[in-house]
Amino acid sequence: MSTTLSPPRGAGAPAAEQRGATIVFEDVAIEFEEKPVLDGVSFELPQGETKVLLGVAGAGKTTILKLVLGLIKPDRGRITVLGQDVSAMPEEDLFGLRGRIGMVFQESALFDSLTVEENVAFRLMEEGKLSEEEIHRRVAEALRFVELEHTLAMMPSELSGGMRRRVAIARAMVSEPEILLYDSPTGGLDPITSTTIIELIVKQRDFYKTSALLVSHRLQDGFMMASHYFDTAANEMRPLAQASRTDVHTTFLVLREGKVIFDGASRELAASRDEYIREYIA
């Protein structure tokens, strides 16, 4: 990464003023077609922390993101997001809350008929609160952050898979969200491109300190995030020294058959004696 960082305009500032957790799940359960997907899930996402959600396909990782957004309701339990009980909120009240959350969808989910600039600006245009000049400035800045400012006028079909994923991150960031949700941001990408995406996520984490949930099928993505920091002076991701006491505010939640079997730091995960976890991380 080589683009010079621009100073934050206050992205994440509202969340920074909060105390405690930005997301709280309390004994959450949900089933589809009488098949349990989550069963008694409880966890908290502290302000400024990134929590990596791990587990095999069907473990309930993406379901957690949908529950945070209020797209589906739990059958049991309580979900609090930015101090609001989304498990009990009517649909019309959820729009304002969703405006405070940025989402990076699996496979990017860009609009094929819109330019890169129009894709990134979509939410800001929908809200109608900013001038066209301010929207353009924010979009250019978000694309500069992901090193794609030169793609403003391009169409998604002209971009590589990795570039589309970076545009999706810029789109999620542009509204200065208090929470970011990543749904398998490196899925389907080659190892080199995946590392580039993780570097951008680490850069966003360390620069803006936005609370985030990240679903991943790649254990190495989570461990890379937990063992690296973004050096703003060098403008690149670097590994933490072995004896470093630096806290990169990245933890792990492992799901198995709809239940939480681990919630903690990378060192604790690596040292776990649980047979399933040891096999999973081997």
Explain what the structure shows.
It is a single chain. With 282 residues, the protein is of the alpha/beta class. It has two domains: 13-100 and 177-281, Rossmann fold (3-Layer(aba) Sandwich), CATH 3.40.50.300; 116-176. Helices cover 35% and strands 26% of the residues. The protein has ten helices and twelve strands. A hairpin with a 2-residue loop joins strand 1 and strand 2. Helix 6 runs parallel beside helix 7. It is globular. Mean pLDDT is 91; it is low at 2-18.
Helix and strand layout, with pairings?
Layout lengths: L12 H4 L4 E12 L2 E12 L3 E5 L6 H8 L7 E6 L2 E2 L5 H8 L2 E4 L11 H12 L4 H14 L15 H13 L5 E5 L7 H18 L2 E5 L3 H9 E4 L4 E4 L10 E7 L2 E6 L1 H5 L4 H7 L1
Helix pairs in contact: 4-5, 4-6, 5-6, 6-7
CATH architecture of the largest domain: 3-Layer(aba) Sandwich
- Tell me the number of strands: 12
CATH superfamily placement of the largest domain = P-loop containing nucleotide triphosphate hydrolases
Uncertain segments: 2-18
Count up the domains. 2
Major pleated sheet: 6 strands, mixed
Identify the quaternary structure here: single chain
**CATH fold-level name of the largest domain:** Rossmann fold
**Under the CATH scheme, which class of the largest domain?**
Alpha Beta
Continuous helix count: 10
| Rg (C-alpha, Å) | 18 Å
From the N-terminal CA to the C-terminal CA, the straight-line distance is 30 Å
- Order of secondary-structure elements: HEEEHEEHEHHHEHEHEEEEHH
User: What's the overall geometry?
Assistant: globular
